[in-house]
Amino acid sequence: MSLLTIGSVAFDALETPYGKTDKIIGGSCTYIALSAGFFLPKVNVVAVVGDDFPQEYMDTLKSRGINLDGLQIKKGEKSFFWAGKYHNNMNSRDTLVTELNVLADFKPVIPASYQDCDYLMLGNLTPQVQIEAIQGLNKRPKLVVMDTMNFWMDVAMDDLKRVLTMVDVLCINDEEARQLSDQYSLRTAAKLIMAMGPKTLIIKKGEHGALLFQGDRMFYCPALPLEDVFDPTGAGDTFVGGFIGYLAKTDDISFENMRRAIVHGSAMASFCVEKFGTERLFEITEADLAGRVNEFRELASF
Amino acid sequence: MSLLTIGSVAFDALETPYGKTDKIIGGSCTYIALSAGFFLPKVNVVAVVGDDFPQEYMDTLKSRGINLDGLQIKKGEKSFFWAGKYHNNMNSRDTLVTELNVLADFKPVIPASYQDCDYLMLGNLTPQVQIEAIQGLNKRPKLVVMDTMNFWMDVAMDDLKRVLTMVDVLCINDEEARQLSDQYSLRTAAKLIMAMGPKTLIIKKGEHGALLFQGDRMFYCPALPLEDVFDPTGAGDTFVGGFIGYLAKTDDISFENMRRAIVHGSAMASFCVEKFGTERLFEITEADLAGRVNEFRELASF
């Protein structure tokens, strides 16, 4: 099934206790597309970069089945750039630089060839841009999944609440779920958030795994305890990319299949953090993924 | 199989956002025995109280199959007393009062009738008292499980390390595992801690569940997301009491059975937090527990 994802394609500069990088390829859309692309022959991307974005990076993405027909390249402008430094426990980080650049006035344009979209993944972006992406499609996709972050709750809550009424699945972290619902209990938070629109809610808890809610049903996927987390950048996007990639591949949006999709997303994320940036996502094989999914099965079974 | 537990039998005064109590029955041994007693016709207790401890409380415990032949009652002395106040998120608390009283010079005495002990549960106490309890048994039990806390790591690390060489299973929380191993990664911490003695390690993560480690094997049991946590007091002791009670009932200490024991302990703990103190533990039925274990199965299966 065809998958369209919209989000940022950008430069990241990362520093963790294991080392630091210069500007490397990053952005929510990059991680989502690489992760979802593991499951699908093609992933359609809508995003924007400046003309500083190297052709080499675009060629690399294309070689993984990522369709960049919807990638706008703004002449004379610079790509979105984020720099961050992780603390020793890897659970907290400081943002050192955020340069919106081309993202500041991004208007998503959906190419005609993308209009058959069955699965739509809205990466973390201004809620207004997420709305425009949905409205840019002639037919409503079978499943719309969105990511967001606490920043939009602070500065664009009305727009955010409007997108929430337009999507099927919301994917946020525990802190964001608490902020959005003003409830500490994640179970109570989930009820309130699902009443805002999305019938299904994923709450990411980092090293503590992820929760999936739909009506009265719950699924708790643990995170695989790892000896070393090398670089957590992109883990959340890799997770949700694997989730929607697996759903699109199997074309089954039942709750039972969403459980398996969560596990596949978690497995992809567990690889992502093993090296800097997107590096590890280029190495994994189908056998690696099958082995990792078995580790999750072994981890959770009783 | 016969189970012996040693720990505190005490008074607690609790305050949570839902209300507060006067002095009520508390102590690690009380929660462990009540939880383990759910699985066994009898639980043998070694503990100490002052003569302020009401006969009514002792009668209540006895009515649940808890054998108090090993409960020392110190004339003219007062029982251990702890008072605490939980913050709004229930994940942190302030200790308002700690009066050691009879616990200050507790010398465990194991009654002759307890010497057939197959399963030994060492509740959180001075490591020296835990050692004396093990040494007070003529034959080594089939399984020795111990709880401890960060306080003993601060003030009695040498004694604590000595107990660790004498036990089979250590049960601590994530913060304690990190302190004991000086490692942030729980998987690395587990390796180092198991090298200190216990072949099996349980790391409790509160609302994030519990991890079980043995050699290279891992099991992750999620905590059931609850709408309300009324009072978390005793949840950890109820958890480990359910764990060892289930093992003693089934008399199977394989890793596979320990997985099921962790789930039964987690189920017992999920009941415990639904009311103040030990109250909920007196209400649950076998059908309640079976239903809750099924909820865990549903929560974790994919």
From TrEMBL, chains A, B:
**Entry keyword annotation includes Transferase:** yes
Ordered alphabetically, the record's keywords are: Kinase, Transferase
One GO term describing the cellular component: cytosol
Any one Gene Ontology molecular-function term assigned to this protein's record: kinase activity
Q: Which PROSITE patterns does the record cross-reference, listed alphabetically?
A: PFKB_KINASES_2
The cross-references to InterPro entries, in alphabetical order and at most eight, read:
Carboh/pur_kinase_PfkB_CS, PfkB_dom, Ribokinase-like
Q: What protein name is recorded for this chain?
A: Sugar kinase
What is the source species? Aquirufa antheringensis
